[in-house]
TrEMBL record:
Keyword list, A-Z: ATP-binding, Nucleotide-binding, Transport
UniProt protein name: ATP-binding cassette domain-containing protein
GO molecular function terms listed in the Swiss-Prot or TrEMBL record: ATP binding
Keyword Transport part of the UniProt annotation: yes
Residues of the full protein shown: 10 to 265 of 343
Signal peptide from the UniProt entry: none
Source organism per UniProt: Carboxydichorda subterranea
Keyword RNA-binding tagged: no
Ranges that cross the membrane: none
Domain annotation ABC transporter: ranges: 8-256
């Protein structure tokens, strides 16, 4: 059949920290509508890749195209406003704020602060605010967080906090959703819920997903395509069932 176009195209990305080449010429292409898994041992560059794509660390070489548009070096809020949302490996929720307010903040990344948007905001008035609020409430229901919507996030178990982060990312209505170890610290039941919600975001909300995971079994279950990183380089890519038997991959995991 006809292959979907690439929604994200990272070409020859370079990023070092001191003498460490965290990303050493990484090329990764993500097809629209796919779930791409990025795996690799600790320190292989997975989180750095997320930080580079989302503008937290500008790359020192290479190019990033989103929907054909060059987004290399754009600030995080610009990239977010173009339709890329992420979650963080170590939770980055706002402590002291409720689940609902955390998710509402996710929606507002798309409303860029500034004179024009302030004027528009005034002009649209309540109607817009009510619509945002309603859509955010729908996401909270969708992720089965309605029972804790007024709870301060830091009081929730880690599995639910991770789910709030997913809700906040989805509130931005992203076309590309980048999940950095969404199952870290979860028990088996929480992992199964999270897997279900990731599939729903893909199947029902139409998100293209990049899933960063340390554990091969999780990505095996969710991803159509895998990229394996080791020491800042792509050492293998393709369908997950082929990756499992690849000697380079096995060596990286045993050595890592
Ligand atoms: P992974 O997510 O696969 O565990 P990382 O991207 O976190 O790997 O790290 C890749 C390499 O880059 C590691 O050697 C790590 O120590 C280094 N690194 C990542 N971020 C920073 C940073 N902000 N400062 C210094 N070194 C960093």
């Amino acid at each position: 059949g006809v292959q979907a176009p690439y929604v994200l195209d990272c070409v020859e990305i370079q990023r070092s920290f001191g003498g460490i080449k965290a990303l050493d010429g990484v090329t990764i292409r993500v097809r629209a509508g796919s779930i791409l898994g990025v795996v690799g041992p600790n320190g292989s560059g997975k989180t750095t890749l997320v930080n580079v794509i989302t503008g937290f660390y500008p790359p020192q070489g290479g190019r990033i195209l989103f929907d054909g548009q060059d987004v290399t070096g754009l600030r995080p809020h610009r990239i977010a406003s173009l339709g890329i949302a992420r979650t963080f490996q170590n939770l980055a929720l706002f402590r002291g704020m409720s689940v609902l307010d955390n998710v509402l903040l996710g929606r507002h990344v798309r409303l860029r602060p500034g004179v024009l948007s302030t004027a528009l905001y005034w002009w649209w008035g309540q109607g817009t605010e009510v619509r945002h609020r309603r859509e955010v409430e729908e996401i909270i229901d969708y992720l089965q967080l309605e029972g804790v919507r007024q709870e301060p996030v830091e009081l929730l178990p880690i599995g639910l906090q991770k789910r709030v982060e997913l809700a906040r990312a989805l509130a931005a209505k992203p076309r590309l959703l980048i999940l950095d170890e969404p199952m870290a610290g979860m028990n088996q039941e929480e992992k199964e819920y999270m897997a279900r919600f990731i599939l729903d975001a893909h199947d029902e909300l139409g998100c293209t997903v990049v899933l960063i995971e340390h554990h091969m079994d999780v990505v095996m279950a969710l991803c159509e395509e895998l990229v394996v990183l080791d020491h800042g380089s792509v050492i293998a890519e393709g369908p997950p069932e082929l990756m499992r038997a690849d000697p380079k991959v096995i060596t990286a995991y045993v050595a890592g």
